[in-house]
Write a structure and sequence with these properties.
The structure holds 2 protein chains of 2 kinds. By secondary structure, chain A is mainly α. Chain A has a single domain, classed as Helix Hairpins, CATH 1.10.287. Helix content of chain A is 83%, strand content 0%. In chain A, helix 2 (7-25) runs antiparallel to helix 3 and helix 3 (29-49) packs antiparallel against helix 4 (59-91). By secondary structure, chain B is an all-alpha fold. Chain B has 11 helices and no strands. Chain B starts with a helix and ends in a 10-residue tail after the last helix. The chains are: A mainly alpha, B mainly alpha. Chains A and B meet through helix 1, helix 2, helix 3, helix 4 and helix 5 of A and helix 1, helix 2, helix 3, helix 4 and helix 6 of B.
Chain lengths: 106, 314
């Protein structure tokens, strides 16, 4: 019976494990960001699922999960912007050299 | 919900997550990730967590999905096809073994915690004092308002971090346009954007208002607003403002600033983030409207990316 109560938290654990595996074996940074998002979704399910009572789900972990979802998208946006910037710099070595000379005083 | 539904849904979630991670084609992987976000939304609905379901579908599946697709497309334009060398078999096997062991450990730890609605009762007892009925909004804006205030600044900080990646020549111009210039469906996208943006505005206003007593709130409303802005930008109906645009900066800072000012004013009444008795709902709704506007603008601009030099395609 406890197995049935734990069905969503255990699904969350499976997502954490899968996401971690994906993060380790995927070599492209954008795919790794996707994997981090899967790990995050799993943690949210564990958090929310363990707050699931007989009648309702604890509003406190719900609020934490909403906060977490918003922070995760901010992290994803910053990661994506970093990946794009690195790709741009690698593609245009001339620009990079020029940028370096102008940035040298910083 | 019936047990069969829960079990099938959980199997689908795990299967979709595996597909999102293991598909060779990056676009297919991202599409599976979006499906995963929607299934997770269903899981939250099954747990009676409607507030979280809305946030997960709007942000986890919607905004993150668009962000990943857009980044993939921009990387493709730069000559990065998102294919990279596979790890040798023994490393993959090692990673699999380590992750399986870790999953088993975390799984047994989770099994040792009985699921319980521990704080639900004490939060419900405190809710009448706030004059609102949605306990999640109560936690976000009153009982744990400090977390939400900091989160509003984290979101703003992330946008500043994204902007800080702009090349020197690009600052402070606008982010790259999302408009589909050479696409046959451009007129459809434009008409849809024109239709959707006002609807998104109305829905956002409603979600904040309803969020006091029913599922909804500033984060869900902000995301709906961001969605409307993004669709309108894809249709070319709106163009991104320059990063130093005065009104843009007001919109970005309004929510955190209103929150901080009201919070600081609470010090006069006793402590930080204390709302005057009898006016809790008015202050909470005021903060939420400010936050929804700022969250919508911030999310849309985070997705748009750092400013680019004028005359350059993104």
């Amino acid at each position: 019976m406890t197995m049935l109560l734990h069905i969503y938290p255990l699904t969350g654990v499976a997502l954490v494990g899968l996401g971690l595996y994906g993060f380790l074996i995927l070599r492209h940074p954008l795919r790794q960001i996707l994997a981090v998002n899967v790990v995050g979704a799993g943690i949210f399910l564990v958090l929310g699922g363990l707050g699931r009572g007989a009648a309702s789900t604890d509003p406190f972990p719900q609020a934490l999960v909403i906060t977490g979802i918003v922070v995760a998208v901010a992290l994803t946006a910053f990661g994506a912007a970093l990946i794009l910037r690195v790709a741009e710099d690698e593609r245009a070595p001339d620009d990079k050299a020029a940028a370096k000379t102008t940035d040298d005083h910083t | 919900m019936t047990l069969a539904f829960d079990m099938i849904l959980c199997l689908m979630i795990v299967g979709t997550a595996a597909a999102a991670l293991l598909m060779r084609n990056a676009l297919a992987a991202i599409v599976f990730f979006i499906v995963l976000g929607n299934l997770l939304g269903l899981a939250w609905l099954a747990m009676d967590a409607v507030n979280v379901a809305m946030a997960e579908i709007a942000i986890g599946a919607g905004v993150t999905g668009v962000l990943l697709i857009l980044t993939r497309q921009r990387l493709n334009a730069l000559g990065d096809d998102l294919v990279s060398a596979e790890l040798p078999g023994w490393l993959r096997a090692g990673a699999l073994l380590a992750c399986a062991g870790f999953t088993a450990m975390v799984g047994s730890a989770v099994m040792s915690v009985p699921p319980a609605d521990d704080l639900g009762g004490s939060i419900a007892a405190l809710m009448p004092g706030l004059g609102i009925e949605n306990p999640v909004t109560g936690v976000l804006l009153a009982f744990r308002a400090y977390d939400t205030l900091l989160e509003a600044f984290v979101l703003l900080g992330a946008l500043i971090a994204v902007w800080s990646l702009a090349p020197r020549v690009a600052w402070p111009h606008a982010p790259a346009a999302l408009a589909l210039a050479e696409y046959e469906g451009h007129d459809v996208a434009a008409a849809f954007g024109r239709l959707l943006l006002p609807l998104a505005l109305i829905l956002a206003v409603y979600l904040v208002w309803a969020g006091s007593d029913l599922p909804g709130g500033a984060f869900q409303a902000g995301t709906v607003l961001a969605g409307g802005l993004i669709i309108a930008a894809i249709g070319g109906v709106i163009s991104w403002p320059r990063a130093d645009d005065f009104y843009l900066r007001v919109a970005l800072v309004l929510g955190p600033a209103v929150f901080l000012i009201i919070g600081a004013a609470g010090i006069a009444l006793g402590r930080f983030l204390f709302y005057p008795p009898g006016f809790e709902k008015a202050f909470i709704v005021a903060i939420e409207y400010g936050l929804a506007l700022s969250i919508g603008a911030t999310l849309a601009l985070q997705l748009a990316g750092p400013p680019v030099a004028p005359g350059r395609k993104g």
